[in-house]
Amino acid sequence: MNILIAEDEMDIRNLLKLQLEQEGYSVFDAKDGIEALEILQQKAIDLAILDVMMPRLDGFNLLRRIRQTSNIPVMFLTARGDDMDKVLGLGLGADDYLVKPFSMAELLARVGAQLRRNSEYSSVKQQETSKIEYGSVCLDKAACCAYVKNRLVELNAKEYLLLKYLMENPERVFTKKQLYSAVWDEDLYYDDNTIMVHISHIRTKIEEDTKNPKYIITVRGIGYKFHVQREVRI
Predict the structure, then answer these.
(1) How far apart are CA 228 and CA 133, in angstroms?
(2) Domain 2-129 superfamily per CATH
(3) I need a surface site. Which of 4, 157, 170, 207 has the fewest CB within 10 A?
C-alpha cells in the first residue's frame, strides 16, 4: 500500500514515514501541497495524510484538488483542532481528522482501518460491476458463467461470449454477421447457421419458452437483440 504524507514540519514528516514504513507501507512524503499534488499525479496512492497549514497550497485546498479526481481515503493530521476546522475538513471529503499532539498507535490503527474499509468497498464495487442482471438471468463476468433464477447454466465458450455481448448491449439489434465478427473475431468464414445454432442453444438454457423467448428476441430480417424486461407499475 502506498501512503502520501503532506507535512511541512520535517521532524513529524520523518517520524511518520519511519513508523509507517516499519508497518510495511510504502511512503511518499511532501513538504507542501504543490509537491503533494505532483506525487499524486505520478504515483498510485492508496491513502493520504495531510496537514492543514502548509505553504503554497494548504491542506483544505489540496483536499479539494484531490476530490476532483480521486476517492482515496484522506486523513487530516493537524494542530488545528477547532470544531469548525473539523467540520470544514470532513465536509470537504476528509475521511478522518486527528489533532496534534497525537498517539502514534492511534494513528496507525486509524490508517489500517481506513485502508481496510476502502479495500472492502472497492471489492464490493468490483463485484457489482462484474455482474449483469436482467430479470432472472445473471451474467457473472468475473467467473465467466451465467445463472438463471440463481441456478448455474452450463454454456460453452462461444455461447457465453455471445450471451455476454448481447447482455452488455441490451435492446441493441445486431445482425448475424455483427455477432459473428464480435464473438468469433473474424469475417472470413462467416456463416448464418453458426449464429442461429448458438442462439438456439442459449435459448434452451435461459428461456422458459423457446418458442416465445422473452430475452433473446429475433428481429425479423435483421438479427437479434437482448430484451430488457421492464417492470410495469400501475
Answers:
(1) 10
(2) Response regulator (3.40.50.2300)
(3) 157
